[in-house]
Amino acid sequence: MKIKYLLGAFAIVAFAQNTYAQYVQDAIRFSTFQPGATSRIRAIGNAGTAIGGDLSSIGNNPAGLGFFTKSEFSFTPEYNGSNVKSSYLGNNMKDTRNAVNLSNASIVFHSRINSPRGADKSKGLLSFNFGVGYNRTNNFYENVSYGGQNGANNIGNYYANLANANHIQGDTRPQEGTLEDVAYGQSLIDLYNNNTTPPTNSYRSNTVGAVGQLSNAMRTGGQSEFNLAFGLNSSNKFYFGAALGISSLRYNSINTFTETGTANILVNGNPVNTPFNSSYIQDQTTSGNGFNIKLGMIVRPVDELRIGVTYTSPTWYNIDDTYSERINTRFSNSNLLSDGQNYPFTYNLRTPQKLGAGLAYFIGKYGFITGDIDYLDYSSARLSYNGDSGDNSDIRMGYRSVINTRFGAEARVVDNFFLRGGYSIQGSPLKTGGTDIKTASGGFGYRFQNYFIDATYTNIKAGSQVVRPYDIGATTPTANLDRSYNNVFLTFGVRF
């Protein structure tokens, strides 16, 4: 099966308006991850490229490891709250989902390089620091619901369109094993005579009158990365680092679109209007592993100023995917009818590479301000399978390059207590119809002896999205979704 056909099927329940018909959703879903971070860096808008001296450097700019003068360990649990508001056919709904995960766990080992006797101990290579870190870089947890009363069309029209498009003349039913064949076998569509000369037949929906429609989607999973990194300190002016990232992903999605209404079907050879309930179910389970390389440098021309640059290679994934689609139908006073197909396959994904830069200005012991900028070209993402390049024209046509910006500040209120705030904008990869993701963040930190605690709250506005439960052309019904997320991060750490 062509990968573009199967991934195109995924888009039926979440088909973005004004995108391409064979929009490859997984390429964008698994390419929009962010560097994992401690609560401190999350609080300043995730703008950690030039900061250094934070365990987030392991998965962001490994040159920042060169700033450590002690070994350090921390772990960061997180709470994620998803809120999705929907509007469909004049009906408003809201759905939520909560999850708790491990966001970050990192350790760095400090090793000072001894200078020759009599040499200036502030010049040359001063330290080599090695870090190991786990980061959660993406969360897929959410529930999405929308529904209403539809008197204009129904999903039977979609099944009928598929049957008419793929029907082999002379056959009395659609091609065996297809979705439209399942719909035909469950009497949701039938072949009708059009009363034309010469005689012609076409498939039509058996549904009569208005139908109640309800779409429910439940999604779980995420992406994570394990990094091995090192950082060097040269003369307290130049800091260099590199990291190997080992990535993994897991994505599970169950989409159920249910219609209730009346259908005109044959009962004992006679056409009868019969109440029915039918559900179209799409189930996707995806897992994969990949790797990438990070290179970074930070320059400190004067004590107050730090300039950072970083490069992240594409992540090369090998992905196993199982997609299934099924129709369950029950007519009044009859047994449940259920049938469908499974489509397992394996493919490769190459995500875009990333270039980043950052500035940080320190105001003595009172704090700092910082800002980051990233460049990615999502149209460079590539899918392939069985040695074939696949059909990547949809990616080139539908995606674009983006610039992501992040900035924040930290202020020392008293000797051991810090306040932080930040803001970030993640550009939409879509050429048309997309919205930027905007994140506001704030938090505090407390240091005592060799221990520290940091707490951060983030509010993410993912913007609005237009989706379609099925596609029948100009009369397709659409739902408007508005997504937002409230997250809390807590970091506990120790220096040793």
Automatic annotation (TrEMBL):
<keyword id="KW-0998">Cell outer membrane</keyword>
<dbReference type="Pfam" id="PF03349">
    <property type="entry name" value="Toluene_X"/>
</dbReference>
<comment type="similarity">
    <text>Belongs to the OmpP1/FadL family.</text>
</comment>
<protein>
    <recommendedName>
        <fullName>Long-subunit fatty acid transport protein</fullName>
    </recommendedName>
</protein>
<keyword id="KW-0472">Membrane</keyword>
<keyword id="KW-1134">Transmembrane beta strand</keyword>
<dbReference type="InterPro" id="IPR005017">
    <property type="entry name" value="OMPP1/FadL/TodX"/>
</dbReference>
<feature type="signal peptide">
    <location>
        <begin position="1"/>
        <end position="21"/>
    </location>
</feature>
<keyword id="KW-0812">Transmembrane</keyword>
<keyword id="KW-0732">Signal</keyword>
